[in-house]
Amino acid sequence: MKQYIDELYENNDLGDEKLLYILENIDDNSKEYLVSKAHEIRMRTYGNKVFMRGLIEFTNYCKKNCEYCGIQGRNKNVERYRLTYDQIMECAKVGDRLGYKTYVLQGGEDPYFNDDRIVEIIKGIKSLFPNNAITLSLGERSYDSYKRLFDAGADRYLLRHETASKELYEWLHPGEVFGDRIKCLENLKEIGYQFGAGFMVGLPRQTKADLVKDLRFVKEIEPHMCGIGPFIPHADTKLKDFTAGTLEDTTTILALVRLLLPNVLLPATTALGSIDKVGREKGIKAGGNVVMPNLSPTDVREKYSLYDGKICTGDEAAECRKCIERRINNAGFEVAITRGDNVKWSQDNPDVLQYDSKIVDINGILGF
Ligand code: SAM
Ligand code: FES
After folding, report:
1. CATH number of the 2-349 domain
2. Is pLDDT at 227 greater than 80 in this prediction?
3. Most buried pick, 44, 189, 272, 305, via CB within 10 A?
4. Distance between first and last Cα of the chain
5. Any idea where the domains of the chain sit in the sequence?
6. Residue 362 above 60 pLDDT?
7. Residue 110: how many other CB atoms lie within 10 Å
8. Cα(305)–Cα(233) distance, rounded to whole angstroms?
9. Residue 272 contacts residue 310 (beta carbons within 8 Å)
């Protein structure tokens, strides 16, 4: 086992059979060794900094019916909401004051938010904060739509592939075609976004061999970001009786992804924090270098219920900010008040300002 981990560490790659061997046989000692190697790599690429993204969940309307997802269109128990343009700008202002130099605008696939409306939002945020980055996470759209949003100023796009197993993907997304999702990722890459793929760990019917497919997929497509979290059941879905993915399996996968893709931006996700009180800290220790605290108004938080037991639904944005910094520090790391671009991308785009000279006294605002 140790020999395979060393090989992965040296080459940033490992054959599929060896990856499968690690997933099937990892024990406490080898896990500790794997995590220590992932830590070494992240210290080399990003040091001890963790980037923050202010997450704005701006609509929970969705035309899709992903079987695992609590806000899928057919769930009649969801109270639907959309944030207004002004509410979104207000979130952006609060976020900037709290030191978030990237916003993630995430929502269900809501036809109301056509290209014109999203362009207006992107331009509005960029006119307020030209040096802050915008990440979109709006699901599948056409090449032309992605291109328009990029040309309007969007910097990054997150679109998890969810699982790299075609059969499992099509079982979880009835009527959807796996190849369409992958084509979207290829389009995002071609257009020039910093793009993010990603998947869930512990999905119903998912095997360890399926997870090896995910690892191989991300190694090959080489995303700038990779969102990985445990599947967690939601009571209103057909998958409600399945068990959630585990902290151990998810952190093993995070460490393997850090070793396969040393430069990747790797979030310690809210889902990981939702299955374990110190899940995000453990995710950071296993190689994670991004956290995404919630910036949405508190009165809509509970309505963006993707899975049961989602944390941070009641706290004000400033509370989340304090909490996240405490967690990052407890894990032995430091918060970075920057756009937090992918390190390789930054080298290729040296003119993009990473540090904003107007940075305010965050401690004063937070009352530390
Ligand atoms: N609609 C956009 C899309 O499809 O990419 C973005 C929103 S979607 C709710 C964001 C992510 O939430 C999905 O990519 C999925 O991986 C995750 N998610 C949804 N339901 C989940 C569940 N039950 N457990 C864990 N993660 C879940
Ligand atoms: Fe659309 Fe989950 S099914 S966001």
Report:
1. 3.20.20.70
2. yes
3. 272
4. 45
5. 2-349
6. no
7. 19
8. 11
9. no
Mean pLDDT of 188-197: 98
Count CB neighbours of 144 within 10 A: 10
Residue of 60, 61, 146, 160 to test ligand 1 pocket, by largest number of atoms within 8 Å of CB: 160
d(CA 181, CA 243): 26
Given this model, what pLDDT does residue 108 score?
A: 98
C-alpha to C-alpha distance for 71 and 93, rounded to whole angstroms = 27
Question: Which pLDDT band holds residue 314 (cuts at 50, 70, 90)?
Answer: confident
Q: Hunting for tokens 């209103």 — which residue is that?
A: 236
Protein residues whose CB sits closer than 6 Å to any atom of ligand 1: 68-69, 106, 108-109, 137, 139, 159-160, 162, 200, 229, 231-232, 234, 271, 306-307
Question: Any idea of the CA torsion for 21, 24, 30, 34, to the nearest 10 degrees?
Answer: 70
Residue 107: both structure tokens together: 């929502």
Q: What pTM does this model have?
A: 0.96
